[in-house]
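Appendix B. One record, verbatim.
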Amino acid sequence: MNWDDPTDATADEGLAGPAAERLVGSVADGEDQAVEAALRPKDLGEFIGQEKVREQLDLVLRAARARGATADHVLLSGAPGLGKTTLSMIIAAEMGAPIRITSGPAIQHAGDLAAILSSLQEGEVLFLDEIHRMSRPAEEMLYMAMEDFRVDVIVGKGPGATAIPLELPPFTLVGATTRAGLLPPPLRDRFGFTAHMEFYEPAELERVIHRSANLLDVEIDTVGAAEIAGRSRGTPRIANRLLRRVRDYAQVKADGVITREIAEAALKVYEVDARGLDRLDRAVLQALLKLFGGGPVGLSTLAVAVGEERETVEEVAEPFLVREGLLARTPRGRVATPAAWTHLGLTPPRPATAGNGQQDLFGA
């Protein structure tokens, strides 16, 4: 796999095993989905963070309601766990419309999409998660459905095949993707409103944690919330997951109140450090630093060193390490940055003895 090519990668949501099991993983499992349903804000006023997106989306929805029309199609992009599904439900609630939820991997044939579209009610919101993973024939059918509210159903095969036009009621498509670059331009161009979801600042995550703690009937002080927020990797889903685990620790080991000391002790048990790194993240850094002198080292070699699959290291651990400035991807392989040595309390090698590719990182 060529990391330099954005099309040569598997989607985060498609990973199994460690990706779904990690406490700081951004993929929602069954428990997360159940809890998220209870914690989801019901309108834009309750939604925390993403100020620009909320302001722009509010204008789109208000204008549509004033015209008495369905809202334009909406494309939401961003990392998992930032609130794309929640916003789709808010769009439906703000428009007073029902919502239908499906995903790209579930639509592998044009007929699958035709069956869904033909059963939509007027004004209904269709939420299509992982839209970049939909099959090409279904994509091409979606073009006409979004633009003309019509699909052509092909009946028969070969020379005798005929296309039967099927009129659709006006609807709003909300597409969500973690890989906006994988969407073909004709599909992207048919969305009337596109928004990119940014990672959250710690102060915003503190507000998310306080709100969730109130809904979960958990007592937490300001510094305890700040400690959890600082380890949540900028993602509300992870913040809520860490809050639940710290709550469990506080109930069993303390009086149920979450303070900084309780949060630190709980997250130490769950192996989530002060920057949000977990066991897998630290294993990758330790192998890179201790076994390979900071790199450069190939991805496959690094994966073998930590006992994980290549895809797990590339799709699960690397994105956060790169975003935190602890690891760099170079044409010759993965290289640790000076911040990685500092974070693990190790001394970097002298520049003269550092591996190829480190001169520009450590300086002359």
